Amino acid sequence: MFGCGFHSIVILGIILLIKENLYREWNLKRRIFACFI
After folding, report:
1. What are the transmembrane regions (predicted)?
2. CA distance 26 to 6
3. 1-37: per-residue pLDDT in tens?
4. What is the rounded distance in angstroms from the CA atom of residue 29 to the CA atom of residue 32?
């Protein structure tokens, strides 16, 4: 279809999005824990 280049870019983008979401979630959890401590 688009070739390997396009696919690798899409996969990289998805991985980056997942990493960002996990990082944000972790930051929120850390803030919540910081409030309790």
Report:
1. 6-23
2. 30
3. 555 677 888 889 999 999 999 989 888 888 888 877 5
4. 5
Q: Strand locations in 1-37, DSSP E?
A: none
Which amino acid is it at 28? Answer: L
CB atoms within 10 A of CB 33: 9
Q: Which amino acid is at 14?
A: I
Q: What is the DSSP letter of 22?
A: H
Global pTM value: 0.55
Q: In the chain, what is the straight-line distance between the N-terminal and C-terminal CA atoms, in Å? A: 53
Q: How far apart are CA 24 and CA 3, in angstroms?
A: 32
Extract the tokens encoding 16: 């980056």
